[in-house]
Amino acid sequence: MTTQHERELTPGVNVPLVGFGTFLIPDDQTADAVENALAAGYRHIDTAEVYENERGVGEGLRRGLQQAGLTRGDVFITTKLWPQTQDRDKTGAEAARSLDESLERLGVEQVDLYLIHATFGREQRLEQWQALAEAYKSGKTRAIGVSNFNATHIDELIEAGLPVPHANQIELHPWSQKPELVSYLNQKGITPIAYSSLAPLSTWRTAPGHSSGKTQEMRAEGERENSPFKKLAEKYGVTEAQFLLGWGVQNGYPVLPKSTNPNRIRQNLDIFSFTIDDADMEYIRGLDRGAGLAWGEVDPTTHG
Q: What's 251's domain CATH number?
């Protein structure tokens, strides 16, 4: 049964609407962060092969389950295939091995959702998706999906006679709303999962190598006293982060906030006590700026 704080990916598989993101958390800090997240009430942890912190996630999962008296089945785990190795795309066989290696690092026999992290070459993309379909059949993952795919990429999978993805994890926030892609995903029964939900805040992706001119422009806007999200957060009596996450969840998107601060970890989960009114939702629709920023000046969907 799906609760009000979950969304069904496929019959019997429900993803919590608030997950704990681990992007940019170093492996040696990830275990503590995941343990704190589970203690705060998170039941979805998101990681990826390329984050290089799956071992930390696994350790945090083991500690967190024991501390909270939970079982493995109580926590939804997402990880992702990085589709390249060195300077070429992975074959289907290499994709299958990557999942086995992720399972070993996480210390689990099965993940709940396994995604192809990005698009690159078309032929290998189809091979990789076939490998994920086989992993789904074998029970190594309860659901399969993609990330950073557009409608054309997904149509390629379907036209090749391959399964429709259960989810597409994409950048979604008020400044990158992707209404046409979201409409397409909903029509196909594919769940949009949002990352970078907090992009409009001034602290977004300030780590070295993850900042662009557009990011700096956003930071300046976010720091203004009259920025729209400061005003809206004040209106609803929540933090800016809570407001942005609430906007995502109100649209039906599972969100993946990341923090290593225990107080913020708890705050980011506490987003179900307010509802944004229709007028403000309409106002936010007018703030859309089009393409996202997560990949800097390079759109991974232009490869292949």
A: 3.20.20.100
